[in-house]
Amino acid sequence: MAFDIGLALLVLGVGAWTVAARDTFAAVVGFVAYGLLLALVWVRLAAPDVALTEAALGSGLTGGLLVSASTRLRRAETRAVDERQPASLRLAAAVLCTLVSAGVAAIVLLLPEPAPTLAPQAMVNMAATGLGNPVTAVLMAYRAIDTLLETVVLLLALVGIWSLAPDRVWGGVPGPRHQAEPDGLLTFIAQLLVPVGILVGIHIFWVGSVAPGGEFQGATILAAMWILAMMAGLVDAPAVNRRWLRLMLVAGPAVFLTIGLTGFAVAGSFLAYPEPHAKLLILMIEIPVTLSIAATLALLVAGPPERAPGR
Amino acid sequence: MTEATLYGLCSAALVGVGLFGLIMHPQPLRKILAFNLIGGGVFLLFGAVARRGAAAGLGGDPVPQALVITGLVVAFAATALAVALLLRLFQETGRATLGSDG
Amino acid sequence: MSAALNGLTILAVCAGAFFFLAGTVGLLRFPDTLSRLHALTKADNLGLGLVVLGLLFQAEGLLAALKLISVWLLALLAGATVTQLIAHTARPSGPQA
User: What is the pTM of this model?
Assistant: First the structure.
Protein backbone atom coordinates (compact mmCIF):
# COMPACT_ATOMS: atom_id res chain seq x y z
CA MET A 1 0.00 0.00 0.00
CA ALA A 2 2.82 2.38 0.82
CA PHE A 3 4.33 1.51 -2.54
CA ASP A 4 1.03 2.38 -4.23
CA ILE A 5 0.82 5.73 -2.44
CA GLY A 6 4.38 6.53 -3.45
CA LEU A 7 3.73 5.51 -7.06
CA ALA A 8 0.53 7.56 -7.27
CA LEU A 9 2.32 10.63 -5.87
CA LEU A 10 5.17 10.12 -8.33
CA VAL A 11 2.76 9.88 -11.28
CA LEU A 12 1.02 13.06 -10.11
CA GLY A 13 4.35 14.83 -9.63
CA VAL A 14 5.64 13.95 -13.09
CA GLY A 15 2.27 14.91 -14.62
CA ALA A 16 2.32 18.26 -12.85
CA TRP A 17 5.88 18.83 -14.01
CA THR A 18 4.88 18.07 -17.60
CA VAL A 19 2.31 20.86 -17.34
CA ALA A 20 4.54 23.30 -15.46
CA ALA A 21 7.81 22.91 -17.35
CA ARG A 22 8.91 26.00 -19.29
CA ASP A 23 10.81 24.24 -22.06
CA THR A 24 8.69 22.13 -24.41
CA PHE A 25 11.36 19.47 -24.87
CA ALA A 26 11.58 19.03 -21.10
CA ALA A 27 7.80 18.67 -20.95
CA VAL A 28 7.90 15.96 -23.63
CA VAL A 29 10.58 14.04 -21.75
CA GLY A 30 8.45 14.34 -18.63
CA PHE A 31 5.51 12.96 -20.59
CA VAL A 32 7.50 9.87 -21.65
CA ALA A 33 8.44 9.26 -18.01
CA TYR A 34 4.77 9.75 -17.06
CA GLY A 35 3.76 7.09 -19.57
CA LEU A 36 6.26 4.57 -18.21
CA LEU A 37 5.14 5.22 -14.63
CA LEU A 38 1.54 4.74 -15.76
CA ALA A 39 2.58 1.33 -17.12
CA LEU A 40 3.75 0.45 -13.60
CA VAL A 41 0.39 1.62 -12.23
CA TRP A 42 -1.38 -0.67 -14.70
CA VAL A 43 0.64 -3.62 -13.43
CA ARG A 44 -0.43 -2.73 -9.88
CA LEU A 45 -4.04 -2.67 -11.11
CA ALA A 46 -3.64 -6.27 -12.36
CA ALA A 47 -3.90 -5.27 -16.04
CA PRO A 48 -0.68 -6.48 -17.72
CA ASP A 49 -2.13 -6.23 -21.24
CA VAL A 50 -2.89 -2.55 -20.71
CA ALA A 51 0.55 -2.02 -19.15
CA LEU A 52 2.20 -3.43 -22.30
CA THR A 53 0.06 -1.20 -24.54
CA GLU A 54 0.70 1.90 -22.43
CA ALA A 55 4.47 1.37 -22.35
CA ALA A 56 4.75 0.64 -26.06
CA LEU A 57 2.14 2.97 -27.54
CA GLY A 58 1.23 5.59 -24.96
CA SER A 59 4.81 6.22 -23.90
CA GLY A 60 7.03 4.86 -26.67
CA LEU A 61 5.46 5.77 -30.00
CA THR A 62 3.69 8.88 -28.69
CA GLY A 63 6.94 10.00 -27.08
CA GLY A 64 8.86 9.55 -30.32
CA LEU A 65 6.19 11.49 -32.21
CA LEU A 66 6.21 14.36 -29.70
CA VAL A 67 10.02 14.55 -29.47
CA SER A 68 10.38 14.94 -33.23
CA ALA A 69 7.54 17.49 -33.26
CA SER A 70 9.06 19.55 -30.44
CA THR A 71 12.42 19.56 -32.23
CA ARG A 72 10.85 20.84 -35.44
CA LEU A 73 8.89 23.49 -33.55
CA ARG A 74 11.88 24.77 -31.62
CA ARG A 75 12.11 27.87 -33.80
CA ALA A 76 8.58 28.84 -32.86
CA GLU A 77 9.41 28.11 -29.22
CA THR A 78 11.71 31.10 -28.81
CA ARG A 79 8.99 33.46 -29.89
CA ALA A 80 6.28 31.97 -27.70
CA VAL A 81 8.14 31.45 -24.45
CA ASP A 82 7.34 34.90 -23.09
CA GLU A 83 3.59 34.52 -23.25
CA ARG A 84 2.14 34.26 -19.76
CA GLN A 85 -1.51 34.39 -19.02
CA PRO A 86 -2.92 37.01 -16.60
CA ALA A 87 -3.32 35.97 -12.99
CA SER A 88 -7.11 36.25 -13.08
CA LEU A 89 -7.32 33.64 -15.86
CA ARG A 90 -4.94 31.42 -13.95
CA LEU A 91 -7.07 31.66 -10.81
CA ALA A 92 -10.30 30.95 -12.69
CA ALA A 93 -8.73 27.96 -14.45
CA ALA A 94 -7.41 26.62 -11.14
CA VAL A 95 -10.87 26.86 -9.57
CA LEU A 96 -12.48 25.12 -12.56
CA CYS A 97 -9.91 22.31 -12.55
CA THR A 98 -10.30 21.81 -8.82
CA LEU A 99 -14.05 21.49 -9.27
CA VAL A 100 -13.60 18.96 -12.10
CA SER A 101 -11.12 16.94 -10.02
CA ALA A 102 -13.48 17.00 -7.07
CA GLY A 103 -16.27 15.77 -9.31
CA VAL A 104 -14.24 12.84 -10.61
CA ALA A 105 -13.05 12.05 -7.08
CA ALA A 106 -16.67 12.02 -5.92
CA ILE A 107 -17.45 9.56 -8.71
CA VAL A 108 -14.60 7.34 -7.54
CA LEU A 109 -15.68 7.43 -3.91
CA LEU A 110 -19.35 6.85 -4.71
CA LEU A 111 -18.87 3.82 -6.94
CA PRO A 112 -21.44 1.11 -6.14
CA GLU A 113 -20.63 -1.58 -3.59
CA PRO A 114 -20.46 -4.51 -4.42
CA ALA A 115 -18.75 -3.64 -7.68
CA PRO A 116 -20.63 -4.81 -10.79
CA THR A 117 -18.44 -6.95 -12.97
CA LEU A 118 -18.55 -8.92 -16.20
CA ALA A 119 -15.60 -11.14 -15.26
CA PRO A 120 -17.66 -14.27 -14.45
CA GLN A 121 -19.52 -14.09 -17.77
CA ALA A 122 -16.25 -13.48 -19.61
CA MET A 123 -14.67 -16.55 -18.03
CA VAL A 124 -17.70 -18.78 -18.55
CA ASN A 125 -17.86 -18.13 -22.28
CA MET A 126 -14.12 -18.16 -22.90
CA ALA A 127 -13.99 -21.90 -23.57
CA ALA A 128 -16.24 -21.41 -26.59
CA THR A 129 -13.74 -18.99 -28.15
CA GLY A 130 -10.77 -21.30 -27.63
CA LEU A 131 -8.68 -18.51 -26.11
CA GLY A 132 -6.85 -18.42 -22.79
CA ASN A 133 -6.49 -14.66 -22.27
CA PRO A 134 -9.77 -13.02 -21.22
CA VAL A 135 -8.75 -9.57 -22.50
CA THR A 136 -8.02 -10.99 -25.96
CA ALA A 137 -11.34 -12.82 -25.80
CA VAL A 138 -13.10 -9.51 -25.12
CA LEU A 139 -11.19 -7.75 -27.90
CA MET A 140 -11.62 -10.43 -30.56
CA ALA A 141 -14.84 -12.19 -29.66
CA TYR A 142 -17.19 -10.41 -27.28
CA ARG A 143 -16.47 -6.85 -28.46
CA ALA A 144 -15.00 -7.65 -31.86
CA ILE A 145 -16.96 -4.86 -33.49
CA ASP A 146 -15.10 -2.31 -31.35
CA THR A 147 -11.80 -3.72 -32.60
CA LEU A 148 -13.02 -3.64 -36.20
CA LEU A 149 -14.06 0.00 -35.88
CA GLU A 150 -10.76 0.78 -34.17
CA THR A 151 -8.76 -0.51 -37.15
CA VAL A 152 -10.91 1.65 -39.43
CA VAL A 153 -10.35 4.70 -37.19
CA LEU A 154 -6.60 4.18 -37.46
CA LEU A 155 -6.90 4.14 -41.24
CA LEU A 156 -9.00 7.30 -41.20
CA ALA A 157 -6.37 9.09 -39.08
CA LEU A 158 -3.71 8.00 -41.58
CA VAL A 159 -5.77 9.27 -44.51
CA GLY A 160 -6.21 12.53 -42.61
CA ILE A 161 -2.46 12.85 -42.18
CA TRP A 162 -1.76 12.01 -45.82
CA SER A 163 -4.24 14.64 -46.95
CA LEU A 164 -2.05 17.31 -45.33
CA ALA A 165 0.57 16.94 -48.05
CA PRO A 166 1.14 19.99 -50.25
CA ASP A 167 0.00 19.57 -53.85
CA ARG A 168 3.47 19.23 -55.32
CA VAL A 169 4.32 16.17 -53.19
CA TRP A 170 0.86 14.58 -53.25
CA GLY A 171 1.20 10.83 -52.85
CA GLY A 172 4.90 11.20 -52.09
CA VAL A 173 7.36 9.91 -49.52
CA PRO A 174 6.83 10.78 -45.84
CA GLY A 175 9.51 12.43 -43.81
CA PRO A 176 12.99 13.70 -44.65
CA ARG A 177 15.62 11.42 -46.15
CA HIS A 178 17.72 9.91 -43.42
CA GLN A 179 21.26 9.25 -44.54
CA ALA A 180 22.66 5.90 -43.48
CA GLU A 181 26.23 6.19 -42.22
CA PRO A 182 27.83 2.79 -42.89
CA ASP A 183 29.87 2.84 -39.67
CA GLY A 184 27.44 4.92 -37.69
CA LEU A 185 26.03 4.07 -34.30
CA LEU A 186 22.40 4.28 -35.35
CA THR A 187 23.09 1.93 -38.26
CA PHE A 188 24.73 -0.55 -35.90
CA ILE A 189 21.90 -0.62 -33.43
CA ALA A 190 19.27 -0.75 -36.17
CA GLN A 191 20.96 -3.74 -37.78
CA LEU A 192 21.23 -5.43 -34.40
CA LEU A 193 17.89 -4.53 -32.88
CA VAL A 194 15.45 -4.78 -35.79
CA PRO A 195 15.63 -8.59 -36.23
CA VAL A 196 15.41 -9.08 -32.46
CA GLY A 197 12.52 -6.63 -32.26
CA ILE A 198 10.61 -8.36 -35.04
CA LEU A 199 10.97 -11.66 -33.20
CA VAL A 200 9.81 -10.11 -29.94
CA GLY A 201 6.86 -8.45 -31.66
CA ILE A 202 5.71 -11.67 -33.31
CA HIS A 203 6.15 -13.53 -30.02
CA ILE A 204 4.06 -11.03 -28.06
CA PHE A 205 1.36 -11.18 -30.73
CA TRP A 206 1.34 -14.99 -30.75
CA VAL A 207 1.40 -15.47 -27.02
CA GLY A 208 -1.47 -13.00 -26.57
CA SER A 209 -4.03 -15.74 -27.03
CA VAL A 210 -3.07 -17.40 -23.76
CA ALA A 211 -0.98 -14.87 -21.81
CA PRO A 212 -0.73 -11.08 -21.55
CA GLY A 213 0.01 -9.68 -24.98
CA GLY A 214 -1.89 -9.58 -28.20
CA GLU A 215 -2.03 -8.00 -31.59
CA PHE A 216 -1.88 -4.33 -30.60
CA GLN A 217 1.20 -4.72 -28.45
CA GLY A 218 2.94 -6.91 -31.04
CA ALA A 219 1.97 -4.54 -33.86
CA THR A 220 3.40 -1.58 -31.91
CA ILE A 221 6.75 -3.32 -31.54
CA LEU A 222 6.81 -4.20 -35.25
CA ALA A 223 5.95 -0.59 -36.11
CA ALA A 224 8.74 0.65 -33.84
CA MET A 225 11.23 -1.59 -35.62
CA TRP A 226 10.18 -0.22 -39.02
CA ILE A 227 10.49 3.33 -37.67
CA LEU A 228 13.97 2.52 -36.32
CA ALA A 229 15.04 1.15 -39.69
CA MET A 230 13.69 4.27 -41.42
CA MET A 231 15.39 6.62 -38.96
CA ALA A 232 18.74 4.88 -39.37
CA GLY A 233 18.45 5.22 -43.10
CA LEU A 234 18.48 1.45 -43.70
CA VAL A 235 15.21 1.63 -45.59
CA ASP A 236 13.48 4.63 -47.05
CA ALA A 237 9.86 5.31 -46.31
CA PRO A 238 7.64 4.08 -49.14
CA ALA A 239 5.75 6.59 -51.27
CA VAL A 240 2.17 6.64 -50.07
CA ASN A 241 0.73 6.08 -53.54
CA ARG A 242 2.31 2.63 -53.81
CA ARG A 243 -0.32 -0.04 -54.34
CA TRP A 244 1.41 -2.68 -52.20
CA LEU A 245 1.47 -0.28 -49.27
CA ARG A 246 -2.20 0.57 -49.58
CA LEU A 247 -3.12 -3.11 -49.94
CA MET A 248 -1.14 -3.95 -46.81
CA LEU A 249 -2.91 -1.18 -44.89
CA VAL A 250 -6.45 -2.22 -45.80
CA ALA A 251 -5.84 -6.00 -45.67
CA GLY A 252 -6.52 -6.17 -41.93
CA PRO A 253 -9.83 -4.32 -41.78
CA ALA A 254 -10.94 -5.92 -45.06
CA VAL A 255 -10.38 -9.47 -43.79
CA PHE A 256 -12.02 -8.55 -40.49
CA LEU A 257 -15.06 -7.16 -42.27
CA THR A 258 -15.30 -10.15 -44.64
CA ILE A 259 -15.21 -12.68 -41.84
CA GLY A 260 -17.74 -10.56 -39.98
CA LEU A 261 -20.12 -10.57 -42.93
CA THR A 262 -19.76 -14.33 -43.45
CA GLY A 263 -20.88 -14.61 -39.85
CA PHE A 264 -24.36 -13.82 -41.16
CA ALA A 265 -24.29 -16.94 -43.30
CA VAL A 266 -22.64 -19.47 -41.01
CA ALA A 267 -23.49 -18.45 -37.47
CA GLY A 268 -26.45 -16.15 -37.51
CA SER A 269 -25.22 -12.59 -36.98
CA PHE A 270 -22.45 -10.11 -37.79
CA LEU A 271 -19.04 -11.17 -36.42
CA ALA A 272 -20.46 -14.38 -34.96
CA TYR A 273 -18.01 -17.27 -35.05
CA PRO A 274 -19.23 -20.86 -35.53
CA GLU A 275 -18.10 -22.54 -32.34
CA PRO A 276 -15.74 -25.30 -33.51
CA HIS A 277 -13.83 -22.89 -35.76
CA ALA A 278 -13.74 -19.85 -33.48
CA LYS A 279 -10.04 -20.00 -32.66
CA LEU A 280 -9.08 -20.51 -36.30
CA LEU A 281 -11.23 -17.60 -37.46
CA ILE A 282 -9.83 -15.36 -34.75
CA LEU A 283 -6.30 -16.27 -35.86
CA MET A 284 -7.20 -15.61 -39.50
CA ILE A 285 -8.38 -12.16 -38.47
CA GLU A 286 -5.47 -11.40 -36.14
CA ILE A 287 -2.61 -12.01 -38.56
CA PRO A 288 -3.56 -9.47 -41.28
CA VAL A 289 -4.83 -7.05 -38.62
CA THR A 290 -1.46 -7.13 -36.85
CA LEU A 291 0.38 -6.42 -40.10
CA SER A 292 -2.00 -3.63 -41.07
CA ILE A 293 -1.88 -1.99 -37.66
CA ALA A 294 1.92 -2.20 -37.58
CA ALA A 295 2.14 -0.48 -40.96
CA THR A 296 -0.50 2.11 -39.98
CA LEU A 297 1.23 2.99 -36.70
CA ALA A 298 4.62 3.35 -38.40
CA LEU A 299 3.16 5.59 -41.10
CA LEU A 300 1.27 7.65 -38.51
CA VAL A 301 4.61 8.45 -36.91
CA ALA A 302 6.29 9.06 -40.28
CA GLY A 303 3.84 11.83 -41.01
CA PRO A 304 2.55 13.50 -44.17
CA PRO A 305 4.46 13.20 -47.46
CA GLU A 306 7.32 15.67 -47.87
CA ARG A 307 9.09 14.42 -50.99
CA ALA A 308 7.69 13.83 -54.43
CA PRO A 309 7.01 10.21 -55.40
CA GLY A 310 9.58 8.51 -57.62
CA ARG A 311 7.38 7.61 -60.57
CA MET B 1 -8.62 2.47 1.15
CA THR B 2 -8.06 -0.11 -1.54
CA GLU B 3 -5.54 0.42 -4.29
CA ALA B 4 -8.35 0.84 -6.80
CA THR B 5 -9.73 3.80 -4.84
CA LEU B 6 -6.24 5.25 -4.44
CA TYR B 7 -5.52 5.15 -8.18
CA GLY B 8 -9.04 6.43 -8.86
CA LEU B 9 -8.31 9.51 -6.76
CA CYS B 10 -4.95 9.83 -8.53
CA SER B 11 -6.78 9.79 -11.85
CA ALA B 12 -9.10 12.58 -10.63
CA ALA B 13 -6.08 14.72 -9.79
CA LEU B 14 -4.48 13.92 -13.16
CA VAL B 15 -7.63 15.05 -14.99
CA GLY B 16 -7.53 18.32 -13.06
CA VAL B 17 -3.82 18.90 -13.71
CA GLY B 18 -4.19 18.09 -17.41
CA LEU B 19 -7.21 20.38 -17.75
CA PHE B 20 -5.21 23.22 -16.17
CA GLY B 21 -2.41 22.68 -18.67
CA LEU B 22 -4.91 22.52 -21.53
CA ILE B 23 -6.42 25.88 -20.58
CA MET B 24 -3.26 27.74 -19.63
CA HIS B 25 -0.71 26.98 -22.35
CA PRO B 26 -1.05 28.98 -25.54
CA GLN B 27 1.22 26.64 -27.56
CA PRO B 28 -0.74 23.83 -29.25
CA LEU B 29 1.98 21.24 -28.62
CA ARG B 30 1.67 21.81 -24.86
CA LYS B 31 -2.11 21.56 -25.22
CA ILE B 32 -1.68 18.20 -26.98
CA LEU B 33 0.56 17.04 -24.12
CA ALA B 34 -1.99 18.18 -21.53
CA PHE B 35 -4.77 16.45 -23.48
CA ASN B 36 -2.81 13.19 -23.33
CA LEU B 37 -2.44 13.72 -19.60
CA ILE B 38 -6.22 14.01 -19.28
CA GLY B 39 -6.53 10.86 -21.40
CA GLY B 40 -4.17 8.98 -19.11
CA GLY B 41 -6.26 10.05 -16.13
CA VAL B 42 -9.51 8.89 -17.72
CA PHE B 43 -8.00 5.53 -18.62
CA LEU B 44 -6.78 5.20 -15.02
CA LEU B 45 -10.37 5.74 -13.89
CA PHE B 46 -11.40 2.83 -16.13
CA GLY B 47 -8.56 0.83 -14.59
CA ALA B 48 -9.80 1.51 -11.07
CA VAL B 49 -13.29 0.37 -12.08
CA ALA B 50 -11.80 -2.76 -13.69
CA ARG B 51 -9.77 -3.54 -10.58
CA ARG B 52 -12.87 -3.36 -8.43
CA GLY B 53 -14.50 -5.91 -10.69
CA ALA B 54 -12.05 -8.66 -9.79
CA ALA B 55 -13.96 -11.95 -9.76
CA ALA B 56 -13.95 -15.50 -11.11
CA GLY B 57 -10.23 -15.93 -10.44
CA LEU B 58 -9.18 -12.85 -12.40
CA GLY B 59 -7.39 -9.82 -10.97
CA GLY B 60 -9.65 -7.40 -12.80
CA ASP B 61 -12.70 -7.16 -15.02
CA PRO B 62 -11.41 -7.77 -18.57
CA VAL B 63 -14.06 -5.72 -20.39
CA PRO B 64 -12.96 -2.24 -19.15
CA GLN B 65 -9.34 -3.30 -19.70
CA ALA B 66 -10.05 -4.12 -23.34
CA LEU B 67 -11.88 -0.80 -23.71
CA VAL B 68 -8.81 1.00 -22.35
CA ILE B 69 -6.56 -0.76 -24.88
CA THR B 70 -8.86 0.39 -27.68
CA GLY B 71 -8.87 3.88 -26.18
CA LEU B 72 -5.06 4.02 -26.01
CA VAL B 73 -4.74 3.13 -29.67
CA VAL B 74 -7.36 5.66 -30.76
CA ALA B 75 -5.78 8.35 -28.54
CA PHE B 76 -2.46 7.74 -30.24
CA ALA B 77 -4.07 8.09 -33.67
CA ALA B 78 -5.71 11.36 -32.59
CA THR B 79 -2.39 12.66 -31.21
CA ALA B 80 -0.62 11.79 -34.45
CA LEU B 81 -3.24 13.65 -36.50
CA ALA B 82 -3.11 16.65 -34.15
CA VAL B 83 0.69 16.82 -34.34
CA ALA B 84 0.60 16.56 -38.15
CA LEU B 85 -1.93 19.40 -38.31
CA LEU B 86 0.25 21.49 -36.00
CA LEU B 87 3.40 20.90 -38.06
CA ARG B 88 1.53 21.79 -41.24
CA LEU B 89 0.25 24.99 -39.58
CA PHE B 90 3.82 25.84 -38.62
CA GLN B 91 5.02 25.17 -42.16
CA GLU B 92 2.36 27.40 -43.66
CA THR B 93 2.31 30.33 -41.23
CA GLY B 94 5.64 30.15 -39.40
CA ARG B 95 3.83 30.38 -36.07
CA ALA B 96 2.95 27.56 -33.71
CA THR B 97 0.95 29.32 -31.09
CA LEU B 98 -2.67 30.19 -30.44
CA GLY B 99 -1.69 33.26 -28.43
CA SER B 100 -3.70 36.49 -28.45
CA ASP B 101 -2.05 38.49 -31.21
CA GLY B 102 0.87 36.30 -32.34
CA MET C 1 16.41 -22.82 0.93
CA SER C 2 13.81 -20.38 -0.34
CA ALA C 3 14.52 -18.14 2.65
CA ALA C 4 18.17 -17.99 1.60
CA LEU C 5 17.13 -17.25 -2.00
CA ASN C 6 14.80 -14.48 -0.80
CA GLY C 7 17.58 -13.01 1.30
CA LEU C 8 19.94 -13.00 -1.70
CA THR C 9 17.24 -11.37 -3.83
CA ILE C 10 16.66 -8.62 -1.29
CA LEU C 11 20.42 -8.03 -0.99
CA ALA C 12 21.00 -7.81 -4.73
CA VAL C 13 17.95 -5.62 -5.40
CA CYS C 14 18.92 -3.24 -2.58
CA ALA C 15 22.45 -2.99 -3.97
CA GLY C 16 20.98 -2.27 -7.41
CA ALA C 17 18.72 0.41 -5.95
CA PHE C 18 21.73 2.00 -4.27
CA PHE C 19 23.54 2.20 -7.61
CA PHE C 20 20.49 3.75 -9.24
CA LEU C 21 20.46 6.32 -6.45
CA ALA C 22 24.15 7.03 -7.01
CA GLY C 23 23.55 7.49 -10.72
CA THR C 24 20.70 9.93 -10.06
CA VAL C 25 22.84 11.91 -7.62
CA GLY C 26 25.47 12.13 -10.35
CA LEU C 27 22.81 13.30 -12.81
CA LEU C 28 21.80 16.10 -10.47
CA ARG C 29 25.19 17.18 -9.21
CA PHE C 30 27.64 16.90 -12.09
CA PRO C 31 28.38 20.09 -13.98
CA ASP C 32 28.04 19.21 -17.65
CA THR C 33 26.30 16.82 -20.01
CA LEU C 34 29.15 14.41 -20.64
CA SER C 35 29.97 13.74 -17.01
CA ARG C 36 26.28 13.35 -16.22
CA LEU C 37 25.94 10.80 -19.03
CA HIS C 38 28.97 8.95 -17.71
CA ALA C 39 27.57 8.72 -14.18
CA LEU C 40 24.14 7.74 -15.42
CA THR C 41 25.23 4.96 -17.77
CA LYS C 42 27.76 3.33 -15.51
CA ALA C 43 25.65 3.36 -12.39
CA ASP C 44 22.36 2.49 -14.08
CA ASN C 45 23.73 -0.45 -16.04
CA LEU C 46 25.31 -1.90 -12.92
CA GLY C 47 22.16 -1.21 -10.93
CA LEU C 48 19.97 -2.92 -13.51
CA GLY C 49 22.37 -5.87 -13.64
CA LEU C 50 22.16 -6.29 -9.87
CA VAL C 51 18.36 -6.04 -9.89
CA VAL C 52 18.17 -8.68 -12.64
CA LEU C 53 20.61 -10.86 -10.69
CA GLY C 54 18.37 -10.61 -7.65
CA LEU C 55 15.31 -11.51 -9.71
CA LEU C 56 17.11 -14.50 -11.25
CA PHE C 57 16.92 -16.20 -7.87
CA GLN C 58 13.13 -15.89 -8.04
CA ALA C 59 12.71 -17.02 -11.63
CA GLU C 60 10.76 -20.19 -12.28
CA GLY C 61 12.60 -22.18 -14.88
CA LEU C 62 15.34 -21.61 -17.43
CA LEU C 63 13.13 -19.76 -19.94
CA ALA C 64 12.10 -17.08 -17.43
CA ALA C 65 15.75 -16.64 -16.38
CA LEU C 66 16.82 -16.26 -20.03
CA LYS C 67 14.07 -13.67 -20.56
CA LEU C 68 15.33 -11.65 -17.59
CA ILE C 69 18.91 -11.75 -18.88
CA SER C 70 17.80 -10.71 -22.36
CA VAL C 71 15.87 -7.79 -20.82
CA TRP C 72 19.11 -6.70 -19.16
CA LEU C 73 21.10 -7.06 -22.39
CA LEU C 74 18.53 -5.11 -24.44
CA ALA C 75 18.42 -2.31 -21.85
CA LEU C 76 22.24 -2.26 -21.88
CA LEU C 77 22.27 -1.97 -25.67
CA ALA C 78 19.64 0.75 -25.77
CA GLY C 79 21.28 2.71 -22.96
CA ALA C 80 24.74 2.59 -24.50
CA THR C 81 23.45 3.67 -27.90
CA VAL C 82 21.34 6.54 -26.62
CA THR C 83 24.21 7.74 -24.42
CA GLN C 84 26.58 7.85 -27.39
CA LEU C 85 23.99 9.66 -29.52
CA ILE C 86 23.36 12.27 -26.81
CA ALA C 87 27.09 12.72 -26.24
CA HIS C 88 27.67 13.19 -29.96
CA THR C 89 24.98 15.86 -30.01
CA ALA C 90 26.40 17.58 -26.94
CA ARG C 91 29.95 17.70 -28.23
CA PRO C 92 30.12 16.85 -31.93
CA SER C 93 33.69 17.86 -32.58
CA GLY C 94 35.38 15.23 -30.44
CA PRO C 95 37.71 15.12 -27.42
CA GLN C 96 39.73 18.22 -28.19
CA ALA C 97 36.76 20.64 -27.94
Answer: 0.92
